[in-house]
Amino acid sequence: MNNRKIPLRKCVATGEMKNKKELVRVVRSKEGDVSVDLTGKKNGRGAYITLDKESIQLAKKKNILANHLKANVDESIYEELIQLAEKEKH
Question: Would residue 33 count as lying in a domain?
Fold first, then answer.
């Protein structure tokens, strides 16, 4: 029997605790570069977000990722997240 604990993370947009696999990590490096971290292993300050369009748009509208990461989040990051969310659905 495999009784390992499932790592939970909190979505910065919705505040829900979810299985880490259902979330995607956005990370800010020491240099201040913000990127989508699909491995979940990049160094830097990370924020987890649910991979669905509503959560991503909410985060964008309220600037949630930028506040969490204390960095400017480029438009392209949100576009990348939305594309990932679209892929997840199919």
Answer: yes
In a domain, 2, yes or no: no
Separation CA 50–CA 28 (nearest Å):
17
Alpha-carbon distance of 65 to 59, in angstroms, equals 6
pLDDT digits (tens, 9 = 90+) for 19-43: 999 999 999 999 999 999 999 999 9
Q: What is the pTM of this model?
A: 0.89
88, 29, 27: which is closest to 53 by C-alpha? 88
Assign residue 71 the CATH number of its domain: 3.30.1230.10
**57-71 pLDDT, tens digit each:** 999 999 999 999 999
Considering all CA atoms of the chain, what is the largest pairwise distance in Å, rounded to the nearest integer? 45
| Residue-number span of the structural domain to which 19 is assigned | 8-89
In the beta sheet, which residues pair with residue 50? Answer: 23
**33: Cβ contacts below 8 Å, ≥ 6 apart:** none
